[in-house]
């Protein structure tokens, strides 16, 4: 990297006016509009950059300290002591930080049906996220260009200052404001990603949702989150599951619960019927005299557990439906049945713990 003072042809202790005068003279000689030589354009850029640094008091001070600053040399400062006894510790051990950083994690929410919980389901998710820039492939630079070493910190990412104290000269270090601590600058940022190395886009992520999931469960897809700045490694993608309400079935652990409404004649005489479960039809046989609250269990027709293979059961609760509208003939038949059966009057029975929970809670839809 050429020395800015040498580029402008001025001494290191040149005044601001001398620096400005030297720049104007060289700019008139090297401007592309008046000088068509092959190297004029590049020299004009060097001259302009040198003037930008040296004409700014703060940047010039940092440049002088980061270059051949007399205060940074010699023995006796704390930086020298650390370097001598600890192998280059202290302020001199500072290194530039990388532009490449890990991308952020992302969270998406997916709603599935209860039937999908039985065996699992495959989904293609549309995710809006950050992806690698195709133009610069994460370099942050326009194609054909590359980062250049910062001429303020000379690639270290930090600038040093010498502070005089009663104990001698102490060298302090701080991130370089010109390059933000990277040690390099990007003179020609990529026009597509504006020097970020990544762009926002929509992409498709394949996801196999296992059987047995439940609402609130989060699945982790490592490396499927956002790509990091400057093409850094991807973060993770988390998928939060929500199981939609089902009108006919509910879940209790790995079992499925349902309610079967049975007419009074079928409850008395017994019957055979076929119901449609979440994965096909199931034949049921009702014994004569079945009661409300009785539970019919169909083995292996429930949910496959999240970490297992043996499915739960389908438990069907019986609810006997009493007719509310009878014509004269039906009423007469019921009255004849009551007279012939000599049924006792309604009365309190021995309390059955759990009866109400069977009818109300266990088989409540939702």
Describe this structure in words.
There is one protein chain. Helix 2 packs antiparallel against helix 3. A hairpin with a 2-residue loop joins strand 12 (271-277) and strand 13 (280-286). The model is unreliable at 67-92 and 362-366 (pLDDT under 50). The chain is built from nine helices and 15 strands. The chain folds into three domains: 1-55, Orthogonal Bundle (Helix Hairpins), CATH 1.10.287.110; 106-140 and 189-243, Urease metallochaperone UreE, N-terminal domain (HSP40/DNAj peptide-binding domain), CATH 2.60.260; 250-362, Urease metallochaperone UreE, N-terminal domain (HSP40/DNAj peptide-binding domain), CATH 2.60.260.20. The chain has helices at residues 4-8, 16-30, 40-54, 57-66, 78-86, 114-119, 264-269, 328-341, 355-362, and strands at residues 106-112, 121-132, 148-149, 158-165, 168-175, 184-185, 198-209, 218-221, 237-243, 250-252, 255-263, 271-277, 280-286, 295-298, 314-321.
Specify the CATH architecture of the largest domain.
Sandwich
User: The CATH topology of the largest domain is what?
Assistant: HSP40/DNAj peptide-binding domain
| Strand residues, percent | 25-35%
The average pLDDT score comes to 82
Question: Main sheet?
Answer: 4 strands, mixed
* C-alpha-based Rg, rounded: 40 Å
The main sheet orders its strands as 10-11-15-14
How many domain units?
3
Provide the CATH top-level class of the largest domain. Answer: Mainly Beta
Name the shape in a single word: rod-shaped
Q: Give the SSE string.
A: HHHHHEHEEEEEEEEEEHEEEEHH
Count of helices?
9
Q: Classify the secondary structure makeup into a structural class.
A: alpha+beta
Q: Which homologous superfamily in CATH is the superfamily of the largest domain? A: Urease metallochaperone UreE, N-terminal domain
Q: How many DSSP E strands?
A: 15
Distance between the termini: 72 Å
Poorly predicted runs are 67-92, 362-366
Percent of residues in helical segments? 10-25%
């Amino acid at each position: 990297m050429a020395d800015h003072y040498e580029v402008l042809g001025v001494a290191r202790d040149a005044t601001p006016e001398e620096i400005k005068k030297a720049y104007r003279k060289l700019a008139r000689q090297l401007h592309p509009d008046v000088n068509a030589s092959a190297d004029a354009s590049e020299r004009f850029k060097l001259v302009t950059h040198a003037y930008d640094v040296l004409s700014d008091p703060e940047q010039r001070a940092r440049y002088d300290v980061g270059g051949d600053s007399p205060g940074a040399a010699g023995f006796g400062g704390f930086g020298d002591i650390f370097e001598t006894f600890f192998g280059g510790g202290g302020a001199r051990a500072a290194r530039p930080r990388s532009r490449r950083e890990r991308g952020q994690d992302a969270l998406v929410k997916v709603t599935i049906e209860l039937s999908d919980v039985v065996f699992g389901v495959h989904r293609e998710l549309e995710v809006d996220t950050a992806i690698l820039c195709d133009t610069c492939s994460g370099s942050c630079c326009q194609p054909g260009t590359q980062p250049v070493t910062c001429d303020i910190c000379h690639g270290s990412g930090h600038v040093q200052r010498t502070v005089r104290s009663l104990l001698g000269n102490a060298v302090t270090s701080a991130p370089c404001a010109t390059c933000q601590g990277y040690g390099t600058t990007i003179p020609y940022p990529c026009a597509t990603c504006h020097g970020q190395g990544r762009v926002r886009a929509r992409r498709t992520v394949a996801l196999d949702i296992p059987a047995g999931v439940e609402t609130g469960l989060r699945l982790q897809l490592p490396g499927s989150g956002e790509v990091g700045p400057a093409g850094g490694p991807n973060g993770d993608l988390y998928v939060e599951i929500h199981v939609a309400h089902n009108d006919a079935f509910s879940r209790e652990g790995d079992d499925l619960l349902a309610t079967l409404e049975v007419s009074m004649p079928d409850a008395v005489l017994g019957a055979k019927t076929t119901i449609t479960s979440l994965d096909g039809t199931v034949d049921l046989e009702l014994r004569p005299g079945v009661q409300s609250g009785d539970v019919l269990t169909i083995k292996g027709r429930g949910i496959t557990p999240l970490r297992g293979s043996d499915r739960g059961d389908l438990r069907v609760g019986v609810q006997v439906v009493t007719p509310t509208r009878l014509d004269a003939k039906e009423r007469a038949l019921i009255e004849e049945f009551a007279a012939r059966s000599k049924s006792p009057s309604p009365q309190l029975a021995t309390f059955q713990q759990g009866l109400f929970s069977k009818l109300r809670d266990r088989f409540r839809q939702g």
